[in-house]
Recover the amino acids of this structure.
C-alpha cells in the first residue's frame, strides 16, 4: 500500500513537472526542471528495486545532461524568441501527432502484463536461468552486472560503441577542440572569484573521483559499474572545470589524452573478446581466461573498465566541445557589438 | 536502558527534523521574495535532513551503514549551504533586489 502511494505521488509529480516544462518560456528553468524530472524517475526506479538503473538515471539524467544542456544554453541564449514560437497551424499539427502517439502508447499499455507479473514473457524466457545460474556460472552476487557484462556482453559492447559514435557525431557538428584552442579570446563561463565554491570543489573533487572508482570496482558486488562510474568520474572533473575555468581543466586533461582514452575503452572491451577468441573460445567467452569463475571475474573486470574509461572520456570531450564552441554570430548582432 | 535512550534520542531527532522540514516548506510557500524563500529552503535541506539522518544514525546497528550515513551527513553539511550560497549570490549578481521593510505586511502568517 505504502509502495503504491509513493509510486503514485512520484508519477503525479513527474506529470506536473513535464507539463511545467512544456509551459516554460525561460529555458534555464526548463533545464533545471528536466534535472528534477530525472531525479524523480531515479526515485521511481528505486521503488522498483532497479538500483543500477536509478544510479545511471541520477548520474546521467540529472548530472551530465543538465551540464550539457547548460552548455548548449550558453550558445543559444536563455529565452525562446518570439519569432521562433511556432504558429498555431503547426501547433495543431504537433498536437495531433502527440495525441496519436500517446494514444498508440496507451493502447499498447493495455496489452502489457502487470508490473511484476511472474507469467510475463520477460520473466519466462531467459530471466529464470540468469537468476538461478548466475551465482554458479559467474560467481558474482550482482546479477545485473553478470547479465550486462557476461551474458549480454555483446549487447553492452554495442552500447559502448553507441556512446563512442555519439561523441564522434558531436565532434563533427561542433568541431574539434584542438582547432579552437588557439582562439585565445574564449568566453569564460566560470566564477573564479567565489571562495566558498572553490574551497568546496577542492574538498569534493577527491571524494567524487574516489567514489567513481568505488562504483567502478564494486559494481560486481553492489549497484554500479562502468557506465555509472565513468559518468561520475567525468562529472567530478566537470565540476572542477566549471569552478576553476576550462583552461585549468585542459591543463590537467588535454584533449589528445581524451581522444586516446575514448578509443582505449572500446579497444579494451573488444580486445578482451579477441583474446578469448585467440584462446580458443567464442567472442567474449570469459571462461577461456582462467579456470572456473575466475575467468568470468577477469573478463567482467576488463570490459567494465573499458566501458568506464570510454564513457568518462566521451562525457568529458562532449563537455569540452560544448564549452569551447563559438558559433558564427549572425551579421546584425556582430555589428551591434 | 541504553536502547531506550537511543530510541528516545533518535525519535526526538526525527520529530524535530520533521518539524524543521514542515516549517521550511511553509516558509517556501509563504515568504515574500527569493532571498527569504531560499533561507527557508536552506532550513529544509540542511537542518531538517541533517536531523533526520542523525536519527537514522542512532538507529543503525552495523558499522558500514553507520559510516555511509556519516558520509552522507558530511556531504549534506558541505553541499547544501554551498548551493544555497551560490543561488543567492547568483541572484544578487544578476541584480535581484531583496524585498525590504515595506513588504512586511505580506509576511504575516
Amino acid at each position: 500500500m505504502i509502495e503504491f502511494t509513493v509510486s503514485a505521488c512520484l508519477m503525479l509529480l513527474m506529470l506536473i513537472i513535464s507539463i511545467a516544462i512544456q509551459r516554460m518560456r525561460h529555458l534555464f528553468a526548463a533545464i533545471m526542471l528536466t534535472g528534477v524530472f530525472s531525479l524523480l524517475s531515479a526515485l521511481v526506479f528505486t521503488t522498483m528495486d532497479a538500483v543500477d538503473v536509478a544510479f545511471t538515471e541520477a548520474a546521467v539524467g540529472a548530472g551530465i545532461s543538465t551540464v550539457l544542456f547548460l552548455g548548449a544554453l550558453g550558445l543559444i541564449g536563455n529565452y525562446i524568441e518570439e519569432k521562433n514560437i511556432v504558429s498555431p497551424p503547426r501547433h495543431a499539427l504537433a498536437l495531433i501527432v502527440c495525441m496519436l502517439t500517446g494514444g498508440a502508447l496507451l493502447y499498447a499499455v493495455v496489452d502489457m502484463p502487470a508490473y511484476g507479473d511472474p507469467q510475463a514473457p520477460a520473466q519466462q524466457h531467459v530471466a529464470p536461468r540468469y537468476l538461478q545460474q548466475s551465482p554458479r556460472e559467474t560467481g558474482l552476487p550482482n546479477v545485473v552486472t553478470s547479465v550486462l557484462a557476461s551474458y549480454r556482453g555483446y549487447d553492452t559492447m554495442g552500447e559502448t560503441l553507441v556512446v563512442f559514435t555519439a561523441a564522434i557525431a558531436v565532434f563533427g557538428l561542433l568541431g574539434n577542440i584542438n582547432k579552437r584552442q588557439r582562439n585565445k579570446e574564449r568566453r569564460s563561463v566560470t566564477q573564479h572569484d567565489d571562495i566558498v565554491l572553490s574551497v568546496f570543489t577542492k574538498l569534493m573533487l577527491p571524494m567524487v573521483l574516489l567514489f567513481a572508482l568505488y562504483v567502478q570496482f564494486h559494481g560486481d558486488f553492489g549497484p554500479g559499474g562502468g557506465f555509472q562510474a565513468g559518468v561520475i568520474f567525468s562529472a567530478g572533473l566537470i565540476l572542477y572545470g566549471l569552478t576553476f575555468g576550462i583552461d585549468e581543466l585542459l591543463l590537467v586533461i588535454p584533449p589528445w589524452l581524451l581522444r586516446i582514452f575514448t578509443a582505449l575503452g572500446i579497444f579494451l572491451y573488444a580486445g578482451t573478446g579477441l583474446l578469448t577468441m585467440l584462446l580458443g573460445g567464442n567472442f567474449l567467452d570469459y571462461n577461456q581466461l582462467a579456470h572456473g569463475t575466475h575467468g568470468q571475474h577477469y573478463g567482467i573486470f576488463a570490459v567494465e573498465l573499458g566501458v568506464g574509461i570510454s564513457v568518462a572520456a566521451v562525457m568529458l570531450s562532449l563537455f569540452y566541445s560544448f564549452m569551447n564552441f563559438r558559433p558564427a554570430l549572425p551579421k546584425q548582432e556582430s555589428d551591434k557589438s | 536502558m541504553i536502547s531506550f535512550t537511543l530510541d528516545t534520542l533518535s525519535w526526538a531527532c526525527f520529530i524535530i527534523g520533521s518539524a524543521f522540514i514542515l516549517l521550511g516548506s511553509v516558509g517556501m510557500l509563504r515568504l515574500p521574495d527569493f532571498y527569504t524563500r531560499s533561507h527557508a529552503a536552506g532550513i529544509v535541506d540542511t537542518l531538517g535532513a541533517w536531523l533526520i539522518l542523525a536519527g537514522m544514525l542512532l538507529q543503525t546497528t552495523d558499522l558500514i551503514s553507520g559510516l555511509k550515513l556519516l558520509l552522507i551527513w558530511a556531504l549534506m553539511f558541505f553541499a547544501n549551504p554551498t548551493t544555497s550560497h551560490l543561488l543567492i549570490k547568483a541572484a544578487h549578481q544578476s541584480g535581484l533586489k531583496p524585498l525590504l521593510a515595506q513588504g512586511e505586511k505580506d509576511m504575516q502568517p
About this structure: Chain A touches chain B at residues 191, 194, 196-197, 200, 203-204, 207 (CB under 8 Å). The mean pLDDT of chain A is 83. The CA atoms of residues 115 and 158 of chain A lie 28 Å apart.
